[in-house]
Structures are given as C-alpha cells and as structure tokens.
Amino acid sequence: QVQLVESGGGLVQPGGSLRLSCAASGFAFEDYAIGWVRQAPGKEREGIGCVSSGDGDTYIRDSVKGRFTIFRDKRKNTVYLQMTNVEIEDSAVYYCGADFVLGGGCYELGFGHWGQGAQVTVSS
Asked: CB within 8 A of 41, min separation 6: which ones?
C-alpha cells in the first residue's frame, strides 16, 4: 500500500527557510516519480517540483527556481523540498504525490497517490 507522509511544515518569516519531507513506503521507491504540489486558498493547484523515477532527474517550477530545491534520499525513501527566501505568496498546503513511471519521467499534477498535506504559512 502506497503511503506518503509529509512533515516539516509550519510558520516561517518572509526570507526564511523551511524543509519539507515526504517519507514514502509501500512501493519500490526508485520506480516512482515523486513530487510536490501546493494549493493556496482560492487558488488552483500548482505543481512545484518532481523527482523522476529511475535516475532521479529533478524538475522545479520556473517561478520558484533559485529558491526551492527538490531532491531525494534513496537510503531513507524520502523526497525533500528545500525552500529558501520564502515569500508570503508561498503560503499554501503542500502535498506530496507519487506515481509509477516506467523508464523515468515526472508528473506536474497527475500523481495517483497523495499524502495528507503540510501547511506552510509565511508571515511576519
């Protein structure tokens, strides 16, 4: 059974940093693309980044490139979203998503499995 557990959310000041973790279990970690999607109140879901299956290539949304980094730790079956220089507009619930992808690749939003979400609030 695929299970994704997010952690690391919370309150952070503008310009601060935060690291979100997505601990994965119940599937072959390297066979799945795993990514982060966020949704702020009243806004559409937004794909933030993804680590591909296989080689673990990473993709980050242009609007957060240079501030956010996504990476995985295969020993811990965990994918991280490192957020730096956060802005008030980064406030949202951040969801970890995963899905099987043969031969590498990623999704922006279309993951089949989801975690419960982690609230990130950027406020002074």
From this structure: none
